[in-house]
Structure formats: structure tokens, C-alpha cells
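Hey Z.,

So I finally got round to the HT7 thing we talked about over coffee. Here's the setup:
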Amino acid sequence: PKEIFLKDYKLPDYYFETVDLGFALGEEKTLVNSKITVSPRVEGSSSPLVLDGHDLKLLSIKINGNGLKDADFQVDSRHLTILSPPSGAFTLEIITEIYPQKNTSLDGLYKSTGNFCTQCEAEGFRKITFFQDRPDIMAKYTCRIEADKSLYPVLLSNGNLLEQGELDGGKHYALWEDPFKKPCYLFALVAGQLESRDDTFVTRSGRNVQLRIWTPAEDLSKTAHAMYSLKAAMKWDEDVFGLEYDLDLFNIVAVPDFNMGAMENKSLNIFNSKLVLASPETATDADYAAILGVIGHEYLFILEHGTILNKNTCRVTCRDWFQLSLKEGLTVFRDQEFSSDLGSRPVKRIADVSKLRNYQFPQDAGPMAHPVRPHSYIKMDNFYTGQFFCLVYEKGAEVVRMYKTLLGTQGFRKGMDLYFKRHDGQAVTCEDFFAAMRDANGADFANFLSWYSQAGTPTVKVASSYNAEAKTFSLKFSQEVPLTPGQPIKEPMFIPVALGLLDSSGKDLPLTSFFHDGMLQSISSNGEPVYSTVLRVTKKEEEFIFSDITEKPVPSLFRGYSAPIRLEADLSEADLFFLLAHDSDEFNRWEAGQLLARNLMLTLVADFQQNKPLVLNPKFVQGLKSILTDSSLDKEFIAKAITLPGEGEIMDMMKIADPDAVHAVRSFIRKQLAAELRAELLNTVKNNSSSEAYEFNHPNMARRALKNIALAYLASLQDEESAALALNEYKSATNMTDQFAALAAIAQNPGKTRDEVLADFYSKWQDNFLVVNKWFSLQAWADIPGNVENVRNLLNHPAFDLRNPNKVYALIGGFAGSPVNFHAKDGSGYKFLGEMVVQLDKINPQVASRMVSAFSRWRRYDETRQNLAKAQLEMIVSANGLSENVFEIASKSLA
Ligand code: HT7
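And the result:
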């Protein structure tokens, strides 16, 4: 397989102006007619025109209406090369035959439960027709679709419907035109038996936009929340960024077979059904929140829409796929802000940072570590794979967030406006975004760009000291960027540190000025006291000395997690308890609790490994008790604050990860906490139960979250009273959030009740494939001994199907994420996953590569586990006909 490098980027030799596509959709084969107007980048040049193509049968090729002779072009398995095209502009017509029915990769044009649909990002368009399949080729498209009318009554593509009509032989057609230039990864087509929920959004300039969400008829009633989410995203983008949708129609289609969450195709978003369909009976609060976030995410892509203030359009995309974070990082940041504004900001931040710690941190320290803007790849799809996407998406969003932290809301908006003004209609780079932020604010961003080029999560150490006589408080920062594959030398990063200093009563002290680099810098600009500020740490070692600090403070560092780093501060246990009780920054309150829990867990893991008795620190119990019983706190914040760090997070901090010890310790602490806080937890369940109709809003979600975590704690006691409580909650639940939480609580404990309730749940929901997937994942993840056999048996369950990604993610992915059974010391978990990867690769390489990535951190474990996992990776790498997707991850993991 060939590796592709960022440094090798070259401008295309040819641009495409217009692309007219014709599809004759058939039951066995589909004909694709593509007519492109081509112009050379450099007038008069006639260098070969190289088109990408994959699994295509070429039927004919013409230039300016004349068929080409065999000697005029070359075709191989991946390209069609026109050897000497005419100099000057010309028309290229290509007819290809493709077989969507056989396309199980779900990339390109494929069928999902009887309907045709497409997925073109990143490189799926080349499976439809020969094309320069790269994002910097932006053209205007039309698309004519012809199909059997009774089988495919609905025919959709991007833009506006120009024409539709009947054809002979029971067929019909539709002609769509997208008036704006786009790259081919945003092309989309859908044909099938679908019905729509219709609504209208009136834009701020008074235009009516028709909104349609398409699903099979029986699912239509479950699309109300998706429609609410779409309208909320449209309104939010107008209010916060001044961006107004630019077409008159916006379609969303839900399909059950989809590799990722959703795709932002211009005006025709295609979604994985699980991120559209929701009703209180079938979807949990987490599902509702995910739908809001992902509908927001897909809508908020800049290229999809945009008449910014004063009618300028703002359609910007990536120059090449290395710049993926330019669109994905920015959009994740925007969707996080959208969800924060609609719910609770601190709780959303806590959830996002937990995700970062559980996925980004391990990947940033593993064999596949790469910068936010990678330097090379074998298969582009792998940047969207499993946890690796975190480095481009989630860490990319943190980089965007740092601009906002440094510039403030208004400065950030000024940067965005300039970015649109400069780059409308262009395919650009991360430097262009950086330059817009800098220039719009006249800012000095020093070495900030290294966030795009250096891999690895920096560790920042902070040492503090107070001088009572001088009334100064010093913070000494030192930073270390870890070495990562291919990057043996690291430069210091530009790290924004948002902070406050707490006095002995827990209030923020006023901050006036600090010494830095021998200069006194004023903090408040207009003489008003300031209680929180942002320091700019740019060197390997650096000191900031705050003046006029009247008492020894406790520093609250990296408020709101102002940079994606690992912090090692010299805070004592007492300082952390103090911050947990008092910090005005709710994120840092949570963070202090997590730090205490992490330290406690690591200490107990060491005790466990040395066969010492495990004892829970009473101060920790007391700290959580005061949070649990503090009625002034947001209930969802309490739920997050009493949740222990995940096992993956703790293993990530160990020299040699020990899944058994970490699991035993986490279970011990949960059970011990449940025993000591039993009365408070029972009260929490009682006071937060409600039989009122389900509502998706923060107070109700927060109440359910708190009740259900209390229930889970109690179930860990494995006593009769708790078991009866969980069973009662299961039976009386009026919505899926409560029902599934009760089921999960019951499922912690092997035995008759568990088996009966699992069977009952399946029989209730067997006709709803999304709910059945929850049932699969609950069982896959279970820590009951020898669970691999149960999971193997579930592969043969009538509801399971290896061709459906959601089912694979639920059962096989769920198992690969299970802390105990996947890492079973006899290697049974690794063997199972190895077999599955090889089988899946033949069906769907993108899905298989997600699964193989569970092996990527094999070197973190003990020697026995290392050998067992390595053997599976070697077996996978040597499998016949392995895809590039799986090869890249497996071979880089072994390197
Ligand atoms: N921008 C989209 C990415 C995507 C994708 C990538 C590879 C293979 C399949 C895919 N489906 C969607 C969607 C997003 O970022 O949410």
C-alpha cells in the first residue's frame, strides 16, 4: 500500500467547472453518466488528466463528443488516465457501470434496506464514477436520477428540484440542480420508499426554508426531536455567528446501514437512523442529546450554508484531506457550543473532556499518534476510525476552543468573519484559519501553529509559592511534549492557562497584575477588579508572579480545561478537597474530585497488586457525600461528580496497565461508597423518581441522571433490597432512560433475575432494531466471567447481522471496549476479536478497521497479554486480501 504525504500536495492540473450526472438505477446494475466541463489550471497545458476510480466498469469515454481510442487512455484498478487531453477547456463524458447491491462497504453508492443511498466522504465518489476525487475540485452539479417508480418513489439529490416526470416501463425521473460549487465528497443521492416529516424555518432575513426529514413510514413518528434539533441549530447559527442557510430546501434522510453517525452532504444530509429516530419509550436521554449534537454538527458545517452578515457567502472547505480538522475540529467546537447553550455548559464540558481523556489521550500516546493535521496516511478513512478520529475531531475542537479562550467571544467572531470574507468559495488550509484569527485581532499567537503539527498530549507541571511579606504568588510552569512515532524532537507549545486564585473562604481573589519576563503586566484594563485571567505559557519553563495577593491562595488552574494537556500541579489533597467544595468554576470543581479519585484509585491498585487489604479514605467518602447532598448544585453536575474515572483512564496512567487490578479496585470503591452512602443514595432514588411524561430538558434529564447513578451504585451492593429496588424501577419505568438504566443496574449481577429481565427486555423490543442494539451492547460489555462465550453465541442471534455497522459496534465493539473480558489473561478475548476483524474486513473495511484499533495499545499490557495480542495482529496482517484500512492500523500498531 502507498503512503500519501502532506508535503507532496500539488495543485490540480485541471479544474472542473460543471458536473452533470445521470443515474439509471437498476436492480442488478446502475449506469452512471458523467459529463464534466474541464479547464486546465495553466492555459495551454495538456498534461495527462488522472482520474480516480475504484470498482468501476468503464463503458465509454468521450472528449468534446468524440469517443476516445484505446491508445488515448489507460485504466488500472485505481485510475483512468487520459494521456493527452486537448489544450484549453473541453467536455469529458464518461459512462460507467456499478453494482450498488453488492457494495457492502457502505462507501460510494449502496443499498440500505432496499433504498439507494450514497456516502462520498472521504473517497467514496471514486466508487461512483471516474473523477478527480479531491476536495479542492469544486464544481456546480446537476443530477438526473431515473428509477422504477413503485420501488423508488422518492428520488433526492443536492440542491433544488428542477424537474420530475414519468417514463416508459413504470419508471420516473427527477432532475436536481445545486446552484453552488461543492467538492464531490458532498455529493449525495437517495432513492427509495420514504416518507417525510415537513416543517418550515423562517430565516432572519425572512426567507422560508422547507425542512424535510425522510424515513420509512413506520418511523416517521420518531422524527420530532430531530426536527426540533435542526431548527434549533439553524436559529443558533444565525444568533451566534450571523450565518443563515442559503438554499430553500433542507433534507435529512435516515438510513439503518451507515458506517459513521451522519454526513453533511449539501442540503441532503444522510444520517445513521440511530441519530434521527427517538421517542421517549425507545430512546434514552443520551440518545436525545446525541441527536441534538449530531444534527447540530452536520448542519453547522460552514460549507453547507451561509449568508453571513451583509449578504456575503462563506463557503469554505479543506484544500486536502490533511486539513480535515479545519472543517471537523471547527464543527465539533461549534456543535459543542450549540449543545452547551441549549443545556448546561459545565456538564457538557465535563462530558467532552471525559471523552477526550478516555479516547484522545490514549491515542495520542500510542503507535498511531498523529498531529491534529497529520503528515501522512495510507487510507484516509482511518482518520475517522474509532478513537483515532478524536485526534482530528476532538483535539481539533480543543485547538479552536483555545483561539476563543485567547481572543474572547467577540475576537473569535471577528476572526470567523474575516475567514469567510477572505476565503469564500475556496479550499484552504489550517494556516489560513490561523491567519484570519490573528489578523482580525492583531494578535500575537507566537508558536500556536505547533498544535497542528506536533502529536502527543503535553504534560504541564506547575509549582506554586506564596511570599507573605511581598504579597506575591508565583506560578512556575514547565512543559514536556512527549515523543511520538516519527517526531523525535518536540518544541514547546503555546498553552493558554485560564485561572483564578481562591482565598481561604473559597472566593476568587481580585487579580490586578503579574510580573512576567521582567515586566509588570496589568490584568484589569479599566480598573475594575478581575477574578479570572488567561496566562500565555509559550516556553519550556516560565514563571508568573501575581502581585497584591493578600493571603496564600489555592490556585484553580486551567479553568474550563483551557488547553488539552495533562496537568501535574503541586496541589495537596487538602487543596483538592477545598477546590471540590468551593471553586467557582464548576468544571474545576469536578476536576478536583476526579483528581482525588484518580489518586485514590492508583494507590489502591498498587495495594491490590501487593495483596494488601483495600481501605477507602474516609475523607473521600465525606467529600462525595457533601456533593451528593448539596441541594444547591445542578443534579447532572452531581451525577458527573460522583462518577469515578473510567478504567481506561486509570490504565492509561499506569506504567503497565493492569485491567484486573483496575477493575477490582473500581468495583471495590463503588461498592464501598454504596455501603457507606446507602441512606443518601436511597433518598436520591426516591426523591428523583417521577412518573410524569418524559420531557427533554435539562432539569428533567439531570434528575434522571442523578437517580440512575444512585441506582447503579446501590445495585453494586448485590443485596436483596437493592435488587428489588432496581427491579421495581425497571417495571415502573415510563421511558427508555429509566428502563435501560434499571436494566443495566440489574445486569451487573449474574443470576436468574438478570437472565429473566434481559429476556423480558428483548421480547418487549425485538421489533425495534435500535433498542435491540442497546441490549446487545449491554451484554457485550458485561464483566461477568467468561463473557466471550455469550458474545460468540449472540453472533448467531437472529437479530444480529455482521453487515450492519450499528450491530457490529454494539456487540463486537462493545466487547472490545469491555475492561475485563476483552483482556482475559487466556487470550480468548483477543482471539475472538482477531477472528472478527478478518471476517469483517471482507464485508466492510471501514468497520473492520474500527474494530482492529482496539489492539493498538497492546504494548501497554503485561508480557503475557502483549504476546497474545501481538499474535492476533500478526495473524491479521498476514490475512489474504487484507484491506488498506485494516493493514494501516494493524501494521502501524505492530511497528
Ligand atoms: N464529515 C462526515 C464524515 C463521515 C465519514 C467519513 C468516512 C466514512 C464515512 C463517513 N460518514 C461521515 C460526518 C461527520 O463528521 O460527522
